[in-house]
Design brief:
Blueprint lengths: L10 H20 L4 H27 L4 E2 L1 H12 L6 H13 L14 H10 L11 H4 L2 H8 L1 H21 L2 H21 L23 H6 L6 H6 L15 H11 L3 E2 L6 H20 L13 E2 L1 H11 L3 E4 L2 E4 L11 H7 L5 H4 L8 H8 L2 E5 L13
Helix pairs in contact: 1-9, 2-3, 2-4, 2-9, 8-9
Length: about 400
């Protein structure tokens, strides 16, 4: 990143993101918290948070499902109360993020560090000329209205509305402002900001590891199910983030339950066959990486070649203990006294092809034995083995 200039500071974002925590601390210190107010703050936290995840994110940014106009208006009101910008601004930035993930054009590039992707990108104005298509947002009068009047609408939904509710219902005007309004907003901001920061730095690459997004079940608990971020970046048009029934994804549940009443429909799901391909690909990649730390012996294709006559001559000249299994010559000199079946059987197997007896003619050796034999490879056999030197039974 280039050095930051004073003229690049986004002062209105600085004011919101630094003033609200101070007000929240003042409220917690001096304003009594009533039980009703506490539970409303929790409910409004989920209400506005799901407006971001189900509305701003999965509906308007990714169009992962269709929604009735009534449900769109509800989602718009919910998300506006989160005070994270208009749908047009938020969704444009998010589409840029997906198109240019981890590059200089990514507005919350995780490679610039945790704090940049968490909050810094909102405090510092950068030159970002990345282009994405938002014609659908520009064509929607509901989105245009919210964008035009966003300042007034967000102040009302974030602070005034919850204050009125607590004031009229149980006469807690001050508590409504400080706890349901301000404190709830601080927690909501930093929980949803974790989608850009925490899950781009900590967790598992379940489906792909080309980019920073990760799956993190702990993060899912504080981001309304958005913690399964590796899945999301691989399959962004899927209305789900979590696939398993036990994985926490209240955003998915909201969208699905709304579909039962007809408020949402055409819920998009990526083919399970392709999802499993991605999962297995990463599992195989991890297995291959782990195998690099293990001794699998000299690869068969890299072994020198020997004829069976060479094998017999080598044994006679040096006393080395060689035997043949499936076209590979093995040196069992140092294994003679350790063979679980006894030294005697190995002694009578020296200089012979014991493929049949090794594979069940006498005993069908376990996988562990076959793995151990890899470290004893000596040469690759070429040519034929005389029938009388093929061991079939004891």
């Amino acid at each position: 990143m280039q050095p930051i200039k004073l003229s690049q500071i986004e002062w209105h974002n600085v004011a919101i993101l630094f003033t609200t925590p101070i007000l929240a601390i003042i409220g917690c210190a001096f304003v009594p918290l009533q039980t009703n107010t506490f539970w409303l703050a929790v409910a409004y936290y989920f209400f506005t948070g799901l407006g971001i995840t189900a509305g701003y994110h999965r509906y308007w940014s990714h169009r992962s499902y269709d929604a009735s106009r009534t449900f769109q208006i509800l989602l718009l009101a919910m998300g506006t109360g989160a005070m994270e910008g208009s749908v047009k601004w938020w969704s444009r930035g998010h589409r840029v993020h997906h198109r240019y993930t981890d590059t200089e054009k990514d507005p919350y590039n995780a490679k610039y560090g945790f704090w940049w992707s968490h909050i810094g990108w909102m405090l510092i104005r950068t030159e970002n000329k990345a282009r994405v298509d938002i014609s659908d947002l520009n064509a929607d009068p509901l989105i245009r209205f919210q964008h035009k009047h966003y300042a007034a609408l967000s102040i009302f939904m974030a602070f005034i509305f919850p204050t009125i509710v607590t004031g009229l219902l149980w006469d807690d005007w001050i508590g409504g402002f400080f706890f349901v309004g301000v404190t709830r907003l601080v927690f909501l901001h930093h929980s949803t900001f974790c989608i850009n920061s925490l899950v781009h730095n900590l967790g598992e690459h379940t489906f792909d590891d080309k980019r920073t997004p990760r799956d993190n079940w702990v993060a899912a608990l504080i981001t309304f199910g958005e913690g399964y971020h590796n899945f999301h970046h691989e399959f962004p048009a899927d209305y789900r983030n979590a696939l398993k029934f036990y994985q926490y994804d209240p955003t998915k549940w909201l969208i699905w339950f709304a579909s039962l009443a007809g408020f949402t429909y055409n819920l998009k799901m990526f083919p399970s066959n392709e999802i499993e391909k991605g999962r297995l690909w990463m599992q195989q990649k991890k297995i291959d990486e782990a195998k690099k730390n293990l001794n699998y012996g000299v690869p068969i294709e890299d072994l020198p070649t020997m004829t069976f006559e060479d094998v017999k001559s080598k044994i006679k000249e040096t006393g080395i203990k060689l035997l043949v299994i499936s076209g590979v010559v093995y040196d069992v000199t140092d294994f003679m006294n350790d063979h679980p079946g006894g030294k005697g059987f190995l002694r009578v197997s020296i200089g012979r092809d014991v493929t049949a007896s090794f594979n069940g003619g006498i005993y069908d050796h376990a996988n562990a034995a076959r793995n151990l034999m890899q470290s004893m490879r000596y040469a690759k056999l070429v040519g034929e083995v005389p029938e009388e030197l093929k061991a079939l039974e004891e």
